[in-house]
Amino acid sequence: MNKTALVVAAHTDDEALGCSGTILRHVAEGDTVYALFLADGVTSRQTSDSQDLETRNSAAEKARTALGIQKNFYLGLPDNRLDTVPLLDIIYELEKVIEQVQPQVVYTHHLGDLNIDHQITHQAVMTACRPQPNSHIHEIYTFEVMSSTEWATPATNPFLPNYYVDITDYLEAKLNALSCYKNEMRSAPHSRTIEHIAALAKHRGYSVGVNAAEAFMAVRVVR
């Protein structure tokens, strides 16, 4: 039976960094995938303007096409300032999208990430996806995003993966999707580089005996 998956990310590019190989595999297996982005991704930058937002959203649409995502939803909340928005307001908007797309699987950020927007996104997802009777949401997983997950304070909510998705057949396509966000990628030896994301996929894969993988923490799985 085919599934519907929803990726809830703080910023455009988080979906490509965190779980694009898994998105590609979902689509290849006949599932439908949607993505929801909470923050605009640019207004925290002192020199940003409307053109920067248009450029970033355009990159997100190119990545959407490359990944086979059915539709992107954009809330356009202030970047790196989600803690200034009442959490309940964020939850209300998230619940509207959840009601519309009816996902069985949800992917989102790890609670322990350094980025405050990632933390707020996780909190909003866990509230909006609380296990009500007859809920259609059966699986919730958190992903890692380089330059946030690994930069967090040691021993404070560490990312300890316990669920792996083999993306051996999708690694090249994942890297291609990341290239859509060329303005957000950095040069080596920064952790947010194409080279490092490829190396991370191999590391996660080799850790479980496959050529490439994405790692997650399973937050809730109902069978």
Keywords:
single chain, 223 residues, alpha/beta, Rossmann fold, 38% helix
Tell me what you see in this structure.
The structure is a single chain. The protein is of the alpha/beta class. It has one domain (4-221): Rossmann fold, CATH 3.40.50. Helices cover 38% and strands 20% of the residues. The protein contains 6 helices and 7 strands. It has a 7-stranded mixed β-sheet with strand order 3-2-1-4-5-7-6, sandwiched between helices. Strand 4, helix 4 (116-128) and strand 5 (139-143) form a beta-alpha-beta unit. Helix 2 packs antiparallel against helix 5 (171-179) and helix 5 packs antiparallel against helix 6 (194-207). The two termini are 14 Å apart. The model has no long low-confidence stretch (mean pLDDT 95).
What is this structure, in a nutshell?
The protein is of the alpha/beta class. It is 38% helix and 20% strand.
What is the strand content? 15-25%
Assembly state (oligomeric): single chain
Structural class, from helix and strand content? alpha/beta
| Percentage of residues assigned to helices | 25-40%
Question: Can you name the CATH architecture?
Answer: 3-Layer(aba) Sandwich
What's the overall geometry?
globular
**CATH superfamily assignment?**
LmbE-like
- CA(first)-CA(last) distance: 14 Å
Number of domains: 1
Arithmetic mean pLDDT: 95
Low-confidence segments, ≥5 residues, pLDDT <50? none
Query: How many whole angstroms does the radius of gyration measure?
Result: 16 Å
